[in-house]
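Reviewer 2 asked us to include a model.

Predict the structure of this chain.
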Amino acid sequence: MDWRETTLLALTLLAACISPISGIHDVIEVYTPDYSESYRYVKGLAFDNGYIVFMVKTCHNAHILLSAEENLAETSDKTYEIVLGAHENFFTEIRVGGEMKAQKKTNAMMEKTGMRTFWIMWKDNYVDVGRGFIQGYDRLIHWKIEEPYKHDVAAIAFHTGYECEGTWMFKESKVATKALGMDDFSNESEGNIIVYTPTQFKYRLIKEFFEDQNDRPTSIIFSVKACKNAMIALSRYPTSTNIDTTDIVIGADNRDCKMRTRKPTSKLIRKEAQVKDILNCHQWRWFWLSWNDGNIRFGSGREVGENVVLEWSPVEGEKHDVISIWSSTQFTEGEWHFPGLDQM
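Predicted model (structure tokens):
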């Protein structure tokens, strides 16, 4: 069982057994780059009961902003800012308007190679932060909210500090799916994966299969919302997309689709097709991808085999197994939905 499966299991136990959160179903996974100091607001997180539980993997300086409204900066007095692993992983802090309100020494709080679980609670005029899945237990820091700074929390944002990229996992609020234009997902199977990809190109692992798994899938259906340059890769290896990898560029500058094979120093275009406006910045678009017997096909729609856009039958020596699936975007942000993939 890899760390994503462990994380999903733990979050499912949290939701179903330990402390139910009304109306939650899927997992939202978010990547934060190491080059941005700006907060990223993400919609659809489940925090309607005055607390949030999440997992994060980063080397230090995991910043979470509890805001009275979207797009407020951390300098606003209508935000509560929590920093886990502050000052090179030595402290946990609570700040308001950029001003320190509480600090506690917590050595080696974050871990760049493993997920850590935390809860944040803002109830009864206090902000509390702790470790683990159960709010109220293993508390790290506690701050009584001063009168001028009291506010409701309507939005949550986060980023990771300099030289530390981060992977975050949250439960998604089912109530928010209509507002996000995602209500069509609510009837999908369990095990959905939702991923955000930043503007800087970097393939991110979505799903890894066991090499000796007899029932490895040979197709997936997914949707993506991006302006252009959405990329999905099928790799022979669980840790790399540099060799024995076939990737599809969906909407290259939103004019073409390309199927490529990747090598450490080059990319070879195998098939391409002119398909204008296949992506949309504000609408989810559905696609499918299959790799049965080494033959790779890609098309639009929610049924495998319909509306074929690209098709390639590699010769012997070019075929490869699919052990992992990756996604990325370039020069635009992307949102991806993989229904049922985490149970495959």
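Confidence is low (pLDDT under 50) at residues 12-25, 174-189. The radius of gyration is 21 Å. We have added this to the supplementary material.
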